[in-house]
Amino acid sequence: MSLLTVTPYLRKHRRAIEDLTFQHYRVHTHLDWQNVEDWLNTLVSPLWLAWQGERLVGLMAASEPVEGTSWLRLIALHDDVLSPQNVLNELWLPLSTELLRGGVRRVALLMLRDWLKPYLSPLGFAYDEHIVTMFRGGHQPPQPVPVSNLKIHTVTSTDIDTLVAIDHAAFPAMWRMSKTDIREAWRISAVCTLALHEDTPVGYQLSTQAQDTAHLARLAVQPSAQETGVGTVLLTDALARFSRRNIHAMTVNTQASNVRSQRLYARYGFVRNGYDLPVYIADLPVSSARTAAD
């Protein structure tokens, strides 16, 4: 068997990456709004490849860093790999070193498929919490308490920086979206609206659509405007817009620890559907960052 070599991604590797991710079982994809091909077209994040001779046998990629945090977005192993842990270890070393050099101190992973679970602890990952999924049917939502001087308008490309500012103010670093991600999410959204209070942006929601079901992908409110009804107005308005399209079902994901959000969604008829996903976290040692930089 050929020795394992690890290299950074080059554009000429696109076809090999697509073949590996499409044809083999042990694949982790957490690319949100994009498929692998589209994601490679806009790649701005670290991606490392493992080879045996000229055959690609593994890959590992992280998201664009945001405020010292990043997510493992793409992992794949060839079906013929007999030592998955060894390949993952060899990929994690240069990837984590590159992230450290870029100022990342925490890396997260959303466990979408169980095949990956046995290999995470040796990489330094530990369970953090669950993401819960909620669903609502087609019953009429309650009317929100009106918020005076609040206007809702459809987001355009000129509002992207505003969405980024709201998003980063509303969420902790690990849960913030990069500008690249927000722009891509807006591009494929079905309904994306911005709330303005006396012409000051205070919140936004972004929803997608798959056939006859909507998905509330993002609901963010400026901290100074939270608990004032902005979120309920944005949610009710989104539900009404989908209702006019004859779409009445909606899903939403949120952290198990975010009790306030779950209470809001419950008031609007959302119930947990049992499809929960664990989140794992690895904290990168600062000492390693100094060593990598030396």
Using the 3D structure, state the CATH architecture of the largest domain.
Answer: 3-Layer(aba) Sandwich
The average pLDDT score comes to 92
- Specify Rg, calculated over alpha carbons: 21 Å
> Tell me, what is the CATH class of the largest domain?
Alpha Beta
CATH H-level homologous superfamily name of the largest domain: Gcn5-related N-acetyltransferase (GNAT)
**Strand-residue proportion:** 25-35%
- Calculate the terminal CA-CA distance, rounded to whole Å: 34 Å
According to CATH, what is the topology of the largest domain? Aminopeptidase
Biggest beta-sheet profile: 14 strands, mixed
Query: Which residues form runs of ≥5 with pLDDT under 50?
Result: 288-294
Instruction: Give the class from helix and strand content and strand pairing.
Output: alpha+beta
**What's the tally of helices?**
8
Number of domains: 2
Q: SSE order, as H and E?
A: EHEHEEEHEEEHHEEEHEHEEH
User: What's the β-strand tally?
Assistant: 14
What is the helix content? 25-40%
The gross shape turns out to be elongated
How does the SSE layout of this entry go?
Blueprint: E1 4-8, H1 14-23, E2 27-29, H2 36-41, E3 47-52, E4 55-62, E5 69-77, H3 84-101, E6 106-110, E7 126-136, E8 150-154, H4 160-170, H5 179-188, E9 191-197, E10 200-210, E11 213-221, H6 230-244, E12 249-255, H7 259-267, E13 271-272, E14 277-283, H8 286-293
Parallel strand pairs: 5-6, 11-12
Antiparallel strand pairs: 1-3, 2-5, 3-4, 4-5, 6-14, 7-12, 7-13, 7-14, 8-9, 9-10, 10-11
Helix pairs in contact: 3-8, 4-5
